[in-house]
Design brief:
39% of the residues lie in helices and 17% in strands. By secondary structure, it is an alpha/beta fold. Strand 14, helix 22 and strand 15 form a beta-alpha-beta unit. The longest helix is centred in the middle third of the chain and has 20 residues. The chain binds adenosine-5'-triphosphate. Adenosine-5'-triphosphate (ATP) binds next to helix 13.
Amino acid sequence: MVSVAFSDKYFNSLLKLTPNEQSQANKAVMLFQQDPQHGGLHYEKLTAYKDNKLRSIRANQDVRIILAAAEKEDLYLMLYVDHHEPAYHWAAKRKVEINPSTGSVQVYTVEEGVQSEGSKSSGIPDQPGLFDAVRDRQLLQLGVPEDSLPLVRSMRIEADLENARDRDQIPPDAYEGLFMLLAGATFEEAYNEVVPAEPEAVDTEDFIAALARPESQAHFAVAEDEEALKAVLNQSLEKWRVFLHPAQRRLAIGKKNGPVRVLGGAGTGKTVVAMHRAKWLVENVATEQNKVLFTTFTRNLATDIQQNLNKICSQDALQRIEVINLDTWVISFLKKQGYDYGLLMDSREERRLWEQAYSEKPASSALSMAFFQEEWARVVQPQSIGNVEEYKKASRIGRGTRLNRQERVDIWPVFERYRHLLASNHLKETDDAYRDARTLLEAQPDLRPALCSVIVDEAQDMGTQAFMLIRALVPAGPNDLFIVGDGHQRIYGKNKVVLGQCGIDIRGRSARLKVNYRTTDETRRLAVGILEGISVDDLDGGEDSQAFYHSLMHGPAPQIHCFASIDEQAEAIVEQISVHKFAPEACCAIARTRKEVDALKSSLESRQQSCHVLDGRSAQTAEGAINLATMHRVKGLEFDTVFVASTNRGLVPLEFVVDGAADPVTRRQRENEERALVYVSLTRARKLAYVYGYGVLSPWFDRD
Ligand SMILES: Nc1ncnc2c1ncn2[C@@H]1O[C@H](COP(=O)(O)OP(=O)(O)OP(=O)(O)O)[C@@H](O)[C@H]1O
């Protein structure tokens, strides 16, 4: 019995074979693991190739598996599988090496005849080299293989680097360092990103040690026994289950000395990290009595996460984790304590109460009702202000309207009345429920649920009271909190948090993911462009940035089009689905309001396109039906194709929301949220995104 490792590219090549060939290849690997010398496998050394570690075995008469042998260690790396000719062609120029600087296992092609001077990859000889300012020694430190130095020196334009990556001439870890340099990072920044923890002395022959490093595990999965082999073959179809980016793996595993915060643009695998963290915790820290709580902001994301955890955790481990959205948790907790309130969720009801409370406003005041609602959400609730004395002293930083002490005293009755109305209707706002639950836990610690850790996804939409409750749920200590979010996707504006002010100290334990695994770079760029110039917080009072955020996939730039009517827009959606043979259930048409979603639904249905509206309670989308959703509803989801629809002037940004702001600061906040909604919508697309509108297009997309 030998150990077998698979490269991620092995699975890419496997998936291109017929199902029958795939199963023959799987059988060959299983047999090989038991007995590499088995006669039926025709284990062969490939001589006269670039790398003398390369071997082949037969999956059938025609299909060959290319592997690299670390024979002394009884370890074999499965690299590629294909029909006879292309398989050997693939192997001819490949090398498998342990990089002497980074210690990672790298697979790359070596081309003859690339000179450091003279021959230029892009054929633009007069242009300076992309990396002229960087020394050879530094390139090697970033993990560029020595063989690839001439190629890197010959690069003149960005496309040269991308081409080299696509042709495997630059291994992915080295590409990342080079990409960062190109995007303006200093050598030190790039180096710290690629080699955050320098391996001790690297033994370039020790593949077992090399495969244990996170850099290698981003692209290799090891199966030491038959069970592990079956698991890898089974899980490999969904790469996120097996191959984590080194930055993701470092976050997911190991003891952490306190709360960890993970930021990252859309699609950078934050939820994936959070799920792997949960898996590590349930396997290494949690017990039956001391579980892991995985919380989300929205309900439908909790369901998705539960389903995905089922795929990576054993049945036994799943017993030690609870996935739930925070509102549901808090209400069920409070109900058990005899709490007799409902949560105020209905916006019409909320408006009705505010209208009554607003009647308490002094006649001399010109402040609008919108002002009071904002003031409540941004000042009174986050600071738990319960009386006029506290309100007089409250911090109002970031509010656009000044109020002196007397003015605060004058308007306080409006808030008092609103609170009274909530109480007499047996209603609580979610922030109240969070506060009540925390107060209960602090007064009676024995009520505290038995938890070793709380994981928080979508943290950007949880506010101060939510985090103060989360802090109270689990004692401060190692592995206590793992918080994942992205301020660029904050779409429920009432909430904004500074973790440090909630007793959550993340200093020295924070990371930002940069590789977008979901969206093509063309779609990502359009989405990021919508947020340009906006300052976004890092959940802890600082500023976040999207520097070095990039996608590795490419595709057509999103098509932007304005139609004459909603019917023409629907017609175009139906036509694109039919022309490109999209599976409708893998597409989603997203509009800003529920009313617009309904109008689009009617128009699509009148064209015999069945629809499935996502509303949080909806079941699986039936085959042949296109998903429809509001921009709020698609947070956390993903689809092959996305139609960001009805991006009309007045709807995007939603005029009455922005214009209803009581002051310029709130107006800007609301407009930023509208931008975030578009960013979220576009970044749901795995393959293609369309931006459609009708009448007059949104100024954000109107290029004329
Ligand atoms: N290491 C990985 N290898 C392959 N695919 C990955 C990896 N990490 C994440 N993905 C995939 O990328 C997509 C986005 O991942 P995920 O939903 O975790 O990102 P996110 O940062 O939480 O996104 P968002 O903030 O936009 O909701 C998913 O399809 C996921 O399976």
